[in-house]
Amino acid sequence: MPNIRVLRDMKARRGVLDNEVTRRAYLYVARNQSLPPQVRHQAQLQLNTFGRYTRPTTVKNRCHESGRGRGIISEFALCRFQFRLKALAGELNGVRKASW
């Protein structure tokens, strides 16, 4: 059973994916200096109505095994401890312990 942080991150990823196109459109209109101020203000108000989990900054890289949010090796989506365990067990292709 994943912990609450992992569930929250999954919810944020789903929300960002669902609302990405409309958010980008409103951001483009709100930041476009050539448009009239009223249109830009309306776009900014629409952006403010989006929920918390529609912002891309709420998504955090987490370990797929443990849910840990720090020390993530992004290529494998594992924290450093899980990466070490899986590498020593030979479960990661192309990864082996260095010896010289």
Automatic annotation (TrEMBL):
Gene3D superfamilies: 1.10.287.1480. Pfam families: Ribosomal_S14. One of its GO terms (molecular function) is structural constituent of ribosome. One of its GO terms (biological process) is translation. It comes from the Eukaryota. Signal peptide: none annotated. The keyword Ribonucleoprotein applies. Keywords: DNA-binding, Receptor, Ribonucleoprotein, Ribosomal protein. InterPro entries: Ribosomal_uS14, Ribosomal_uS14_CS. Belongs to the universal ribosomal protein uS14 family. PANTHER family: 30S RIBOSOMAL PROTEIN S14, SMALL RIBOSOMAL SUBUNIT PROTEIN US14M. This is Glucocorticoid receptor-like (DNA-binding domain).
